[in-house]
Design a protein that fits this description.
Number of strands: 14
Order of helices and strands: HHHHHHEEEHEEEHEHHHEEEEEEEHHHHH
Shape: elongated
Strand content: 15-25%
Number of domains: 5
């Protein structure tokens, strides 16, 4: 097979009007090889498709058909009566970069110590306990030393973003003034790329630490490649062959993996482990503030009729005296606080593993069933004043449910309403004939009272 150098030599000798026989003799190759080299060179120069006159139409239809060249061929035949073979159509698309632009050479960013951090998230599906769940993995890396920190969350909102970044800054024991992020609406409030405006709460969070968030340009994910690349390592190393009992166990193992594996492994590009490079970078990091407030999310809730407030599909108990009232709910990463009247009235551990759960503090909800031991108030007021009344109460309780609160309450009302003489006469008659219907007892009392007070 002729090398490109020999082919170029053949062309140059032929241009100097040296014959094919002489070229073959000097280069010690066959005359057919010389002829083929000259023929291929001429064909390559004159290579042009006879369908290039329709190039503008093909480009327009490719854009309308979203790059589907089969549909482009069908529309050319059906609408414009132009028959272009499919292989010729694909050749045109490749040569003139109609369908896909040619890949450009990529560069690299040279970042000094303490100059930049990079943050990103990615979803995974893993086995958590006995369930298979979709999780969001958040990562932060120092661009110079490549030291990384990862955590997992059931979802990733601005609350989880602030929780994660606060933990990551503590893990790094310092921050860089610039943090590169993607164009997700979790941190970005408006716009895209370097012109993006961050959400007010994220901007305030960054001011606390002296961090400015910067979004990379659209379709320029390589700008944060130093956090993008480790996610593949997380998938193939950390999540392989490990089991997790819950969210706390998952995140605890993630921190241990960062310490023992990811940050301890020597990077071929740097010639050292990230932990060693971090020692050189740490003096350049911005120190953390002296006081770091705990990250929380504030919500307002109305206590339902059962004495609970609803938060993230779960229900947390509050004192029953607050039923129907509006309270403030402070959601922390690991706890939930309920505030009413500027006082903390309830605090619970936040449920992460469960949904539709009910968390109850026994002190908040006394039993709804009354204590049935001992006599009721009505019995205390009636007994001990007359033996006849005591005997009637004993028989009445035998024929009633529980402590006979309602019958005794009505009996007390009869005693307090009608004359005492008529009441005891009727009671004696009712006890003699075993009548314990209080409506009939009242009729007997009225009968005796009419005899004593009215001349009928």
């Amino acid at each position: 097979m002729l090398t490109p150098q020999i082919k170029e030599t053949i062309v140059q000798m032929h241009q100097k009007e040296i014959g094919i026989r002489e070229i073959a003799r000097l280069l010690k190759i066959s005359r057919n090889s010389v002829r083929n080299a000259l023929r291929n060179k001429t064909a390559q120069k004159n290579k042009e498709s006879r369908h290039e006159e329709h190039l503008d139409l093909v480009r327009q239809l490719t854009l309308e058909c979203r790059g589907n060249l089969v549909r482009v061929q069908e529309r050319l035949q059906g609408e414009h009566q132009i028959d272009i073979p499919y292989t010729s159509l694909t050749w045109l698309a490749r040569r003139h970069e109609i369908k896909e632009p040619k890949k450009k050479r990529s560069g690299r960013y040279e970042l000094g110590p303490g100059e930049e951090m990079q943050h990103d998230t990615t979803p995974y599906v893993l086995q958590l306990g006995d369930k298979r769940v979709k999780v969001q993995c958040a990562g932060l890396t120092l661009a110079y030393s490549r030291k990384i920190y990862i955590q997992f969350y059931p979802r990733f909102t601005r609350f989880e973003a602030r929780v994660f970044l606060a933990q990551a800054f503590m893990y790094m024991q310092g921050v860089c003034p610039r943090c590169i992020i993607d164009n997700t609406s979790v941190i970005v409030g408006l716009g895209t790329g370097p012109d993006a405006i961050m959400a007010p709460e994220m901007e305030a969070f960054g001011r606390l630490y002296g961090v400015h968030f910067v979004a990379h340009r659209i379709n320029d994910a390589n700008r944060k490649a130093r956090i993008e690349r480790p996610f593949d390592y997380v998938q193939k190393n950390f999540l392989s062959g490990r089991t997790f009992n819950g969210w706390h166990d998952l995140n605890a193992q993630a921190v241990a993996w960062c310490d023992d594996v990811a940050n301890a492994k020597v990077k071929r590009e740097m010639g050292m482990a990230p932990q060693q490079a971090y020692i050189m970078e740490k003096p350049y990091l911005t120190m953390l503030p002296l006081h770091i407030p705990e990250v929380y999310h504030l919500d307002c809730r109305v206590v339902d009729s059962e004495g609970y407030i609803h938060l993230d599909t779960n229900r947390y108990s509050v004192p029953e005296k607050l039923v129907g009232q509006k309270v403030e709910v402070y959601k922390f990463w690991d706890k939930v606080q309920v505030v009413a009247g500027h006082q903390v009235v309830a605090q619970h551990e936040r449920m992460l593993e469960s949904r539709q759960a009910r968390i109850t503090n026994p002190d908040h909800h006394p039993p709804l069933i009354r204590n049935k031991t001992g006599p009721c108030r009505e019995e205390v007021l009636l007994k001990g004043k007359n033996q006849l009344l005591d005997d009637y109460i004993a028989e009445l309780k035998k024929r009633s449910r529980g402590r006979a609160v309602m019958p005794l309450r009505k009996l007390l009302g009869l005693k307090q309403t009608y004359p005492e003489t008529s009441f005891y006469k009727a009671l004696e008659k009712a006890l003699h004939y075993k009548m314990f219907d209080l409506n009939r007892l009242e009729a007997i009392i009225l009968n005796f009272a009419s005899r004593d007070f009215f001349d009928l």
